[in-house]
């Protein structure tokens, strides 16, 4: 069951689920369990009679209840990534040969582990083991021991008594030395000691005559230990990220079977020509050293050399003999000071990958066009202006090409042959003037990046023919529109349009239906004005771009803005594009006129079409000067990350609280004055950034100094407090309102005619007047109101364990208006009093659903109720509820 093992699944048993299934191969029965609780695993095992292999992964296992029922002849037991801090109890281990407990939380091994007499493979990687018990030495048949990624600082010498051991991995521990007895492992073939604190090896280390693979990377060696050169069977030696300096030891020539030599990221300054005697050498990596020259003999005599990595070595030239490497498949010369490549390279017929990024090359040699097997080329950050004329010969087989950070003004058609197999194409940071229509030839292209090309003003329609495209990066160009054909990119998952010159959101994006990541940062610069906002205008509009198409508003504004938004589900792309063109005809308002006028925008149907992107996971619209965002988050069921920071938002879209999958939200550096929706109740929220807004002092302090948990507790208490105050005010209102004034007030609450008629039918007659008022307020607020008189001035809400809340302030300025909303209603007779409905009790419970009223207008708040009464000149009522408001404040502790 190794990670690299290839298994031929022969038979799948019935009753398969994604969490538990069985595979039968070569008469061996394998039981698999994934993401199940302990008890369910135990129950399933009880029902099973046979099993040679048990695999349990990513399950939460309980130490007290977990017991493995062992079937006859259980041979392999795998329990990985279960955060288990104990070894499972197994009642019969006579046939167990393979035990994998990797990536758990085990800190100690029990002494009876030595009883697993038949064990051949023991994997304990990724735990918290600090020492290895001596009893492990009793595992005489053990051949593979993996202790990597633990906390072992001392390696007991008794472990070296396991004479059958062939594979030992102690990487990523805290070992500072090895025991001298390690030489008593006569059959050891593989030893991995990467990422420890070793400075030397035992002198008798050379007695490991069967050692074939040795990794000593990321330790503290200042030189290559001499004993390594006496391990004559060594085929692979990795010595990366150490402190060795000077000349690479020519004693490596003694390792005549060496095939892989990796000396990357040391401080070597010279590579000796004697290494050319390593006739079997296939892989040579000297990356990140200070070697300025490659001996020609290594290229000409190491006939089997297939991979040569000389990147970041300060090379200013490469030998002409480099072109004679007949078997060379991968050549990496990146991050050097090369100005040209060898003029001859016709023998490089096996070359499949060429990396020469970050050099100073201005011309490519013609021999590259004859290397028909090349599938990957990186020419990033050079001085190229064009490609060789016959480049189309090599372009036919290319899968990856990176031409970023050069001086190309056009994309050569030789790079776009009709039968192209190109999958990755990067042209960032070039002075490109346009993209040719031949881009359509890249039928297999999955990743296209053309960012930071400021001369690109438009894209060809043919880009829509790239049907396999998954990633499209177009940031930091000069695009003002997108081609209609973009909607044909049905496999596109990632789109970056940031830092372009769009005057409005391109509607075609809303029709790329499988989009998962959308980046649209710093695009609508026209939205960002430094002038003060006209008072009240932003509270009554639903636009995403206030500078796009606004005209002067008259007094009719108040009636129009409260009309519900039309349903846009069935709009087609052509209709949306036509609306976009029509919007372009509306004259733009000059920035200096904003402070003098009150504006509105015709119903903008384009931004709300974002709700079509049902698969969206990541949405970023930072630094766009947005004043409003469409209330569409209830339709984005998969959205996890939302970034709307550095805009001009005054309100948080109400539906944001219904997007349960969100875990990251950034609303920092906007102009929010309140948190007007229950985003703190999102179940998966792990990060909420609200800094740099205009919240009241108390809330700002909580945001600045509290954790997310503390902020959510504060907001929850604030919500309960607001509901309590509103309820107290409504109770006072019921007792003070006059029957002659009520019809006008009821209509202003936003109750529809059908809702008013329903109340009249349910509670007829003058004697039910107060009941009708109470029921209307229940419909408006969504709260249950007591039928008994309450002394609101002296009552207080239930005690909370969260931060105390700020005082609530009121104003006569216009508050936000919203489309039609629905509130839950009380079940039962009109005279029914809900339990716990007394004012002195804690928060209000939602009312059960029977009749669903229609309520038009903003959410009910204490400030809204007081403001409405003042607008209607109901001064006596306003004073009465204001008294309740002032007396019901909860003072900060």
From TrEMBL:
<dbReference type="InterPro" id="IPR001611">
    <property type="entry name" value="Leu-rich_rpt"/>
</dbReference>
<dbReference type="InterPro" id="IPR000488">
    <property type="entry name" value="Death_dom"/>
</dbReference>
<dbReference type="Pfam" id="PF23598">
    <property type="entry name" value="LRR_14"/>
</dbReference>
<dbReference type="InterPro" id="IPR055414">
    <property type="entry name" value="LRR_R13L4/SHOC2-like"/>
</dbReference>
<feature type="domain" description="Death">
    <location>
        <begin position="741"/>
        <end position="780"/>
    </location>
</feature>
<dbReference type="InterPro" id="IPR003591">
    <property type="entry name" value="Leu-rich_rpt_typical-subtyp"/>
</dbReference>
<keyword id="KW-0677">Repeat</keyword>
<dbReference type="GO" id="GO:0005737">
    <property type="term" value="C:cytoplasm"/>
</dbReference>
<dbReference type="InterPro" id="IPR032675">
    <property type="entry name" value="LRR_dom_sf"/>
</dbReference>
<protein>
    <submittedName>
        <fullName>Death domain-containing protein</fullName>
    </submittedName>
</protein>
<dbReference type="InterPro" id="IPR011029">
    <property type="entry name" value="DEATH-like_dom_sf"/>
</dbReference>
<dbReference type="GO" id="GO:0007165">
    <property type="term" value="P:signal transduction"/>
</dbReference>
<keyword id="KW-0433">Leucine-rich repeat</keyword>
<dbReference type="InterPro" id="IPR050216">
    <property type="entry name" value="LRR_domain-containing"/>
</dbReference>
<dbReference type="Pfam" id="PF13855">
    <property type="entry name" value="LRR_8"/>
</dbReference>
